[in-house]
Amino acid sequence: MLGASTYLIAGLAVMCLGLSKGGFIGFGMIATPLLALVIPPLQAAALLLPIMLTQDVFSAWVFRHECDYRTLAIMLPGTLVGIAIAWIFATHIEQAMVRLTVGLVGVSFAISHWGGLKMRAKSSGAGLLWGTVAGFTGTLANAGGPPFLVFALSQDFSKMVFVGTAAMFFLALNAVKLGPFFALGQFSSENLMTSLLLLPLAIVANAVAIRLVRRIPSSAFYRVSYALVFAVSAGLIWQGITQHGR
Prior knowledge:
The chain is an all-alpha fold and 246 residues long. It contains ten helices and no strands. The protein is globular.
């Protein structure tokens, strides 16, 4: 049985997910590492997956008319490949190295943007590549955000199209992830019950974030997005360095 402190931290993680699914994607990358402070990382990812999927359905329905489906058609085939690779090598790859790699990509992306260099990734080939990386890192460490952002932010979408495309992409990604997590035996009755208890908080956090993202000016939204990419990616680098070899 999970203790009170675990439920408290799980609640904070769910609130981060709500902000993420409402449009502030960077917050979502905090959730699993936060919960992994008190339970094993794979268990943390499995506990949050049903919650994320519920939030994804909610967000995708709200933003269903504000989505660039061409981007999904480009990225999702690669995402399926990335998920399959992660499933095959899940027990052989150190999560610390996955987080370190994702963190380096995210920090480089944010710095290049601020420096005016622009890490451009507009081609279909780039979308397929970053979709594969997002599927791989999203399955192993719930860190599919930075690879998705490298491609999506390069498309110069309007704020709402960007949010809608992200909602649909992560709905598809997390739905496919159910299979590998079932195969790995991570959906215990305790995990599923905890997920169910946290669902109301997840929906409330999601709804609040959706209202915020509709009201915040586009320029401020993108400034926040790049800042979150940098901050969370720096955190992933720190985790990768400090947890390597454990």
